[in-house]
């Protein structure tokens, strides 16, 4: 006997979370819960406003149709909507025992402003020190000085930076000018420095600072290719689609010698812990980019080890079927 439920949820965000110039006051999403022969599987469907192509309403309609067909004994195809394909394929993988519990909870700490906060976190971090800083929000010169300061102060630190295409070639150069050339290879990568891919590639060539693609992966004309200066691709499964597609992209990156970084689309703790498991399975040698739980005010159903936020149970969810 198969049974299925869809739950809707909403989590208040921390006050200052701004995405693509919009304040994100709440994170809204769905869970799918599948049961079959005494086994169960959960999946999260939470399109990220400003990043996902689909709205939550579109996702819900596609999810409902799939769930009803599955409950009635069919083997429906995934609907082809990224967040829905991702959530359903996670639930099916849990149901089939194909998503092992082993997880990589060593997320790279994410810092949006104050480098002092990062010092404390990094001092307490065991093993390889990797952190991610958002750049492009303030003056490029300030970003360059902060990156340089951190690399100088913490000799075993490797930095990931993310400019979200904020810079013109000139601003990108202003940033680079303040990073001592001797430290530049400890910038593991700088995600999407410029508005166009061509400008980002030129920046990497001219400065010796390695870059990574993130936004580019979701563009129709993007192809995985080994290009000088490109070191990594950032894969956000909620924006990518099924687990099979995520795995395919990871394999394509690895085949070209690129690092593949599994990264958050600001999922709830349920989705984030699944991403930590996916990262352990597909990218065991890479620290994933999953340090986004503290942007929220609560966890849902499953807890991230060591996180102090309250964890809400099933009573906080609204059943839709
Ligand atoms: O990649 C990480 O380390 C954390 C996730 C992260 O930085 C992001 C998640 C979602 C939206 C973005 O603002 C941001 C990114 O641009 O990569
Ligand atoms: Mg990014």
Automatic annotation (TrEMBL):
It catalyses: (1R,6R)-6-hydroxy-2-succinyl-cyclohexa-2,4-diene-1-carboxylate = 2-succinylbenzoate + H2O. One of its GO terms (molecular function) is O-succinylbenzoate synthase activity. Pathway: Quinol/quinone metabolism; 1,4-dihydroxy-2-naphthoate biosynthesis; 1,4-dihydroxy-2-naphthoate from chorismate: step 4/7; Quinol/quinone metabolism; menaquinone biosynthesis. Keywords: Lyase, Magnesium, Menaquinone biosynthesis, Metal-binding. Mg(2+) binds at residues 162, 191, 214. Its EC number is 4.2.1.113. SMART domains: MR_MLE. It holds the Pfam family MR_MLE_C. The active site is at 134 (proton donor), 236 (proton acceptor). Its cofactor is a divalent metal cation. It is an enzyme of class 4 (lyase). It comes from the Bacteria. InterPro entries: Enolase-like_C_sf, Enolase-like_N, Enolase_C-like, Mandelate_racemase_C, OSB_synthase_MenC1, OSBS_N. Converts 2-succinyl-6-hydroxy-2,4-cyclohexadiene-1-carboxylate (SHCHC) to 2-succinylbenzoate (OSB). This is o-succinylbenzoate synthase. It comes from Leclercia barmai. The lineage of its organism: Bacteria, Pseudomonadati, Pseudomonadota, Gammaproteobacteria, Enterobacterales. The gene is menC.
């Amino acid at each position: 006997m198969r049974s299925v439920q869809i739950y809707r949820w909403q989590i208040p965000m921390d006050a200052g979370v701004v995405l693509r110039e919009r304040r994100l006051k709440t994170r809204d999403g769905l869970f799918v819960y599948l049961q079959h022969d005494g086994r169960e599987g959960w999946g999260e469907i939470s399109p990220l406003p400003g990043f996902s192509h689909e709205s939550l309403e579109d996702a819900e309609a596609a999810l409902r149709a799939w769930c009803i067909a599955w409950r009635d004994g069919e083997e429906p195809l995934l609907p082809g909507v990224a967040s829905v394909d991702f959530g359903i394929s996670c639930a099916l993988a849990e149901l089939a025992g194909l998503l092992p519990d082993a997880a990589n909870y060593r997320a790279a700490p994410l810092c949006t402003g104050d480098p002092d906060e990062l010092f404390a976190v990094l001092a307490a971090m065991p093993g390889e020190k990797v952190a991610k800083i958002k750049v492009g929000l303030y003056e490029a010169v300030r970003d360059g000085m902060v990156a340089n300061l951190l690399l100088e102060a913490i000799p075993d630190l490797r930095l990931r930076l993310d400019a979200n295409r904020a810079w013109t070639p000139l601003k990108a150069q202003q940033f680079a000018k303040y990073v001592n050339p001797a430290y530049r290879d400890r910038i593991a990568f700088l995600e999407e420095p410029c508005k166009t891919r061509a400008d980002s590639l030129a920046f990497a060539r001219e400065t010796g600072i390695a870059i990574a693609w993130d936004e580019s992966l979701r563009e129709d004309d993007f192809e995985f290719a080994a290009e000088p200066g490109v070191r990594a691709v950032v894969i956000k499964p909620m924006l990518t689609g099924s687990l099979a597609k995520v795995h395919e992209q990871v394999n394509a990156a690895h085949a070209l010698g690129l690092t593949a970084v599994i990264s958050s689309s600001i999922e709830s703790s349920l989705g984030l812990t699944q991403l930590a498991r996916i990262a352990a399975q597909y990218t065991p040698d890479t620290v994933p980019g999953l340090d986004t739980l503290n942007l929220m005010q609560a966890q849902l159903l499953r807890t991230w080890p060591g996180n102090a936020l309250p964890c809400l149970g099933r009573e906080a969810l609204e059943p839709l079927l």
